[in-house]
Design brief:
The protein has about 350 residues and is an alpha/beta fold. Helix content is about 30%, strand content about 25%. The protein has an eight-stranded parallel β-sheet with strand order 1-13-6-5-2-7-12-8, with helices on both faces. The structure holds flavin-adenine dinucleotide (FAD).
Length: about 350
């Protein structure tokens, strides 16, 4: 693929940048998620939305086709063999050069492990403010207003950046991935020969995680359980129900800490943000720290003995009953329907 080349010093200025995470031959889907709110904001500000991708080579990227339909107006690739592995010092220096030369209005990162490592390093190099784990972005009087839970995650704080570019990491799963028909313009940024691609880090060996990553943030139906299920045995019933409904199992923080479920299943401010078509919460009170992670579900069903529980209040339908007993009934009923 022949790309239009642009020298670092000739980059267009004043636009909105989003970090496109290319790692181990994949573009992380969260990079497409963050384009959804940024597209609206960049259009309102009459700025271009530009995805910045650092990688060793284009040919290696397995889901490259997704890039061609993403919401960005342009994609700027920085290609160098030294970018094969994630070395945060080098990657942050590369991005600092991009920022210095393109003087963007904003630079946003998905709150992935790489994004949350890079964004503060970049903000540190450039002496900029950074808003972490944002879960809402809006434009008011031409200013980007970012919201995130704060003070023990009990209140939602709205933040305005005092420095430009506005910088933030955006919580995973907060926004849906949208695509468009028009292909973005893809460019290759040429760095000057004087730029050093050396890193202080030497990667000796790569150990992929053994953990099975749950598909929670992409699930269409989620059955989630909380402390009201009383014990691990009752919680296990959710897996049976999930199988029958082709759903994923989610959990609250206390039950993950109890060891009833793996931490990757935690929904909320300390875990994953989900937006399924149907969310069923069994024995979940609906604390703010949990609901910020699921309130955008299309249809919410709460099962709780307490009709005053906050989750009951935001639910479309609530069953005021014992969660474990209802689980047994549902499983039996669904089994007979198979
Ligand atoms: C900094 C911070 C970050 C946090 N991050 C998260 C997070 O990411 N995700 C998260 O989930 N929490 C998080 N929490 C914890 C959060 O504040 C709540 O404590 C937690 O969500 C409550 O979990 P729960 O609903 O399982 O338990 P509880 O609040 O104890 O609720 C249990 C519910 O079960 C109901 N119940 C009891 N018996 C039955 C029964 N037999 N049948 C049906 N219902 C029954 C009760 O009425 C109650 O509503 C965080 C807290 C802090 C301070």
């Amino acid at each position: 693929m022949v790309l239009e080349e642009v020298k670092l010093e000739n980059l267009e200025k004043g636009h909105i940048l989003a970090f496109g995470e290319c790692y181990k031959k994949m573009i992380h889907p969260s990079s497409f998620e963050i384009l959804t709110p940024l597209k609206e904001i960049s259009e309102s500000l009459r700025k271009k939305l530009i995805l910045i991708c650092l990688t060793a080579s284009l040919e290696e990227t397995e889901n490259f086709e997704d890039l061609k339909k993403c919401l960005a107006d342009e994609i700027w690739f920085i290609l160098n063999p030294e970018l094969k592995d994630f070395k945060d010092d080098l990657w942050a220096r590369v991005l600092a050069e991009i920022v210095k030369n393109s003087r963007p209005y904003g630079f946003f990162f998905p709150a992935t492990i790489i994004g949350t490592s890079l964004a503060p390093r970049l903000a540190g190099i450039l002496k900029l403010g950074l808003c972490a784990h944002v879960n809402s972005l809006e434009l008011k009087d031409n200013q980007i207003i970012m919201a995130r839970p704060t003070y023990g995650e009990n209140v939602i704080a709205k933040l305005i950046s005092k420095s430009v570019p506005v910088m933030a990491t955006i919580s995973l799963g907060t926004f849906p991935i949208n695509y468009k028909n028009k292909e973005p313009l893809i460019k290759k940024v040429i760095f000057p020969e004087t730029f050093s691609w050396e890193s202080k880090l030497k990667i000796k060996r790569f150990f992929p995680t053994k953990k099975k990553i749950t598909k929670l943030s992409a699930a269409k139906v989620i059955v989630a359980g909380g402390r009201g299920l009383k014990n691990k045995e009752n919680f296990q019933k959710l897996f049976e129900l999930a199988k029958l409904l082709n759903a994923e199992v989610g959990a609250t923080r206390p039950v993950c800490y109890e060891g009833w479920a793996e931490e990757e299943r935690m929904i909320g401010v300390s875990g994953v943000t989900v937006r399924p078509k149907v969310y069923i919460g069994f024995g979940i009170s609906g604390a703010l720290q949990h609901t910020v992670g699921m309130e955008n579900s299309e249809f919410i069903i709460a099962v709780n003995t307490d009709k005053e529980a906050p989750l009951v209040k935001i639910a479309n339908v609530a069953f005021i009953t014992d969660a474990s007993i209802l689980l047994d009934i549902l499983i039996e009923k669904l089994k007979t329907m198979k």
